[in-house]
């Protein structure tokens, strides 16, 4: 990434608390970091530490208890067409065909385009995602990997500037997951998107990202902000190199330390 790249997103001293029967539960604590134009940033940390809360704040689904989430210098007040969100659960409409799913967002007021343009855009992303032969199929007739490709195509079709992904490949088998990672990187080469990925997989974070944010056990703080030194496009066999293995070991050690801290935290709370 160019060091002078524009700051698009700023988490500025962000804290989040959720009410519980035992009192407020602090999920995020003074989290601050930036996302620059065109960056692919992964957020990784223990389960339940607040990673998805970060994404939900940027998506506009939640508001911070403290601090600010800024998008181009303005506080995020709610969802918007500039941010496409992809969840692990595919997020496609089972009653719509592949083509209808992709065209759906382009019929809404925020992204509405003429029918001919909708069809052209749907054709483009069906081709990119290898779904052209399934245009008239319903999601129940697709494999898990194909449904996730459909979810990505639908998110891309409305041309968001930001792609927010919460464990998008977590439910897929290893081979399909690897293929989906390669497909995502191929598509991103043709689209100028800024991406925030929530993942539990260290290998996935390294392979896809230019930068990795490691967060602590709850309440989440920034444990490390790591530059990934490998250029795009990722060369074949990069995961087998000593450099990849060294970075993997470093990040895994950080994450496992936070898992251990989380276990100790749970023990103390149960006493």
Please give the CATH class of the largest domain.
Alpha Beta
Overall shape:
globular
Q: Beta-strand level of the residues, as a percent range? A: 15-25%
Taken in chain order, the helices and strands follow as: EEEHEEEHHHEHEHEEH
Over all CA atoms, what is the radius of gyration?
A: 19 Å
What is the CATH homologous superfamily assignment of the largest domain? Answer: P-loop containing nucleotide triphosphate hydrolases
What's the tally of helices? 7
So, CATH architecture of the largest domain?
Answer: 3-Layer(aba) Sandwich
Class by SSE composition: alpha/beta
Q: How many angstroms does the end-to-end distance come to?
A: 47 Å
Measured as a percent range, the helix fraction is 25-40%
Mean pLDDT: 89
Estimate nothing, just give the exact number of structural domains.
2
- Report low-confidence residues grouped into runs of 5 or more: none
> Main beta sheet, described?
6 strands, mixed
